[in-house]
Request: fold
Amino acid sequence: MSNIINGTEIAKIIKDEVKKEIENLQGKKPCLAVVIVGNDEASHIYVKNKNKACEYVGIKSDTYFLEDTTTEEELLCLIDKLNNDDNVNGILVQLPLPSHINEKNVLLKINPLKDVDGFHPYNIGMLSTNSAMLKSCTPSGCIELLKRYNVEIKGKNALVIGRSNIVGKPISMMLLNEDATVTTAHTKTKDLEYLTKQADIIIVAIGVANFLKPHMIKEGVILIDVGMDRYNGKLCGDIDFSCSKKASLITPVPGGVGPMTITMLMKNCLIAYKIQNNTI
Reply:
């Protein structure tokens, strides 16, 4: 039996679940507004993939392409307009933004009930009290993968390597909410190898190619790789894939966590729609 977690397969199953639920909705369908500022190539590819996913599950997708000369005030005015539009259920501002725009101000401006990225401090605060309905997409995708592979999280020693606001911090809170005993490690952590050898579940999100090596882990550990790096011209993650020889389960790169991010965004759009229509 393979120990490889197939994120592509799980993502397809969840998208089909979302699609079926949307088909059964009465009245108008959920609508996602995506705002992209500038010409970052990776961002445009990502937005294109989001639009394809929306089309598949039945979510209306409106994309706003703004020039990189757009001012912060102009962007905030657009978000205000989308906040007040009852036909828009989810708002996503594609990051990164041009350097002259304050990312924090933009994220704060989004109505928390339309914050399908789960980045607004309101939703992060709700997450800390285990009350969030709109959760950060990549971390919630990691949890979903563990659950779909019947991993018992409760009581396990979980180690998160990384403390970003987008992945590290929210995934630590989500694991706590699942009753894991959680340690968060970062660049200032001493004797990291001691921690990695104690962990039952390790989630790595630091952006360092092949950082976690086989000698750092114990037999039977479960490994979730959030990294997306390049090494010698090839795509890889933060976990050296030779760790698969010791792991009971491991996510590959690509095909592991990556496909789950957009899928969980689709799920969040449906949840936001339900919140705004008082059906949740």
In short: The chain has two domains: 26-112, 137-257. The longest strand covers residues 31-37. The mean pLDDT is 96.
